[in-house]
Amino acid sequence: MLSFLLTAGLCFVSTNEPPSHEEATKVVVKEGTRTSSKAVKHSPAVPEERAKTEKAEGAEEAPKTLPKPVRRVVRKPKPMHAPATLAASEAVQQRLMLDNVKLQQEVAQAQMRVLLENPILTPDAALAELVAGNKRFMDGKRVRSLMSNQDPAVRDSLIKGQAPFAVIITCSDSRLSDNLIFDQGLGRLFTIREAGNCPDIQGLASVEYAVEHLGSKLVVVLGHTACGAVKAVKEAHGKPMPGNLWSLQAAMAGIETEIHEDPNETPTEHLRRMERGNALRQARIIMDRSEIVRHLVAAGKVKVLPALYDLSTGRVTFMDLPAEAPAGHH
């Protein structure tokens, strides 16, 4: 009996021995609703490793933060050196100017060929040419007066002589340039300019020279709106004007009494009627005072027409010349 108890005690002792250092102990770690078992060795480093593990697991449980948006850095182009930019701009401008001049010269040469092949032989053809040119001027589409004078061929052809198809008697006003208004190049128009478009003896002589010796087919007396000469005569009310300005009154003698001011019209409207009346008067005076002009008109070789240029629109309005002489002219 005693031997049996001793044997059982020895067995009990052998089955309850403490675990060795090499035996793994199961540690249950709860993560939310899941559990996991990890083997931890019994060693002095276990607390430190466990702290690292817990720290790592805690970091995994921390809420994730959204990444910061990446700012795009737009780099501004470096400005070119000022002298280089200016030089490049000037080079482009120079090239464009040369191309433009070349193109204009080609247009001028083409126009010269057209004019040589289609000379103006009648007063009606001359009038049609002026009307067409004035339309181009109003529309801002001038062709024949665009620097054609810089074409050497044009200048060379004019050295040999001139044959203007029209005579333009117009005012000395700086806002009038008949070559531009009618879009005509050099050698096309024979121009006489006097304040108030009132030709004196020298002016009449110039007209006769153009129609008889140069072959001009049309004589145009071109008045214009806002004419200072006509306005000065209007506002003088018959009183002598100072200096040599009396000559304007002499050239327009009787116009202020012939064209009465209507009480229903404005001063500007009355002035317009006087400007038209003065153009008519001066055209009639040319016919009355020049036997050469009258002879050519009667033969159908020349026509004399009054016209009025509107400063605001650029339009030239041609008028019929009355057969009778105006009252009060000398």
Provide an overview of this structure:
This protein is an alpha/beta fold. The protein has a domain of 221 residues: Carbonic anhydrase (Beta-carbonic Anhydrase, Chain A). Helix content is 48%, strand content 12%. Strands 4-3-5-6-7 form a 5-stranded mixed β-sheet, with helices on both faces. The protein has a two-stranded antiparallel sheet with strand order 1-2. Strand 3, helix 6 and strand 4 form a beta-alpha-beta unit.
Number of strands: 7
Helix tally? Answer: 12
User: Widest sheet: strand order?
Assistant: 4-3-5-6-7
Please write the CATH class name of one domain: Alpha Beta
Runs in which pLDDT lies below 50 for 5 or more consecutive residues are 8-16, 24-45, 326-330
Order of helices and strands: HEEHHHHEHEHEHHHHHEE
Give the topology, please:
Layout: H1 2-15, E1 25-31, E2 34-40, H2 46-61, H3 82-117, H4 123-138, H5 152-159, E3 166-170, H6 178-181, E4 189-193, H7 201-213, E5 218-224, H8 228-236, H9 246-251, H10 255-258, H11 267-289, H12 291-298, E6 303-309, E7 316-318
Parallel strand pairs: 3-4, 3-5, 5-6
Antiparallel strand pairs: 1-2, 6-7
What descriptive keywords fit this protein?
5-stranded mixed sheet, Beta-carbonic Anhydrase, Chain A, disordered C terminus, 7 strands, 330 residues, two-stranded antiparallel sheet, 48% helix, alpha/beta
